[in-house]
Amino acid sequence: MLTDTTTGAGRAVLIHDRCPTLAELTDTARQLTDRRPDLCRLRTVGTSRAGRPLTLLSVGRAERNVLVVAGAHADEFAGRASIVELAHRVLARPALRTAATWNFLLCLDPDGAHLARGALTARTLPEYFAGYYRPAAEEQPEWAPAIGARLPESRTLLDLIDELRPTLQFTLHSMDVGGTFLQATCDPARLAAPFTTSAAALGIPVETGTYDTFWLRESGPGVFLMEPHHIDRQESSTGMLTPHPAHRPDDTGGVRASTWFAPQRHGGQTVIVEVPAWTSDRLGDTRPADDAPERLTASADRLRTRTALLADLLHAALPHLPDQDTALLRAARTPLAASRQLADEWDPGALGRRLLRPGLMTRAKLAGIDLWAHRIPVRAAALLRRAVEPAAARTAADTARLDALLQDWCARYQRRFRPAWLPVARQAEHQANIVQAAVELRHPA
Fold it and tell me: pTM score, two decimals?
């Protein structure tokens, strides 16, 4: 690690074992610019829907550009710490600055980050979900163009890609419980070795069975190729490609319209690096699953049962809410809608029979579906609990029921996957290792 603890963001990562706040991250970028004005530049490249700045730190003056994006999802904080580490590496290593100018978009969704700030310092899952926030699908800037939603944050990123024409775009993602994996719009096979080496050195399990990548081609353990038709199939299975009724999809439609594929029009590619906040060792077993039908049925049933409970509680609370179109309510509806579709996708008596093709279902993939069947209802319950808070006094019984469900489901999630906290410095170091390796492979010295 090269992160400097004289900066607020560095202290957060290395001393306090937490991801930096946006204020700390922005202040650190400003300090680096003041220290090295010959190499660093800081500018506002756009504004959010609520008027918050989208800030870009550029390091180096090479002709080629790489772009590193953090904060695409409000509930994923690791990218902030990784940007701090990467910026310090680039300043300390001239060879990295020779390869490219490094452009760091500090946070793509500052509005969402503001609503998720209560989860930033969480060290347990109950604490994390008490402050949980992830926007509705059509309000997620990376994904919104794929379903025809037009957000200023998306437009800013697309314009930045056209301005910089990056040879590589990196988006830094994380999840609550799991392992590490990566996805790329070009075949990432050459990244498999540095990826697994970094994960092993830092004690991070490689996740081979996440449902995020179920239909993608694997180029190595936990390393997946993002081909548009496979991504379209993947996201259609979760309901994420269903256009929001208030929007008309772009002519290109589907995943090709997302920000992931925009660099391709300039000859560039995108790499998505995922890292967990809490690790689980149950998501990497590539042996064939021998109890798939029963386990798929159980996951589908769990999802249907929990979704129905939450839908009833939402219906009961709505008449008591002063505003029925808040960001939290819109956010809660996304996992509820996805749950209904996912249950059918997993049910062997419905669409789930496709998952039982010989050689397709591994123990890791089955565990990944099991994890989603726990994670999504917990997310939905957490969002709904925050959404109904303004009416808590008038819906005391339903609010108490929500609290009990959230506590019970979170406890079951923990018992099933035995999450272990991954220190923030290791989260950041792993993401930085993969980004650095990808740049060095693309632009060898």
Answer: 0.94
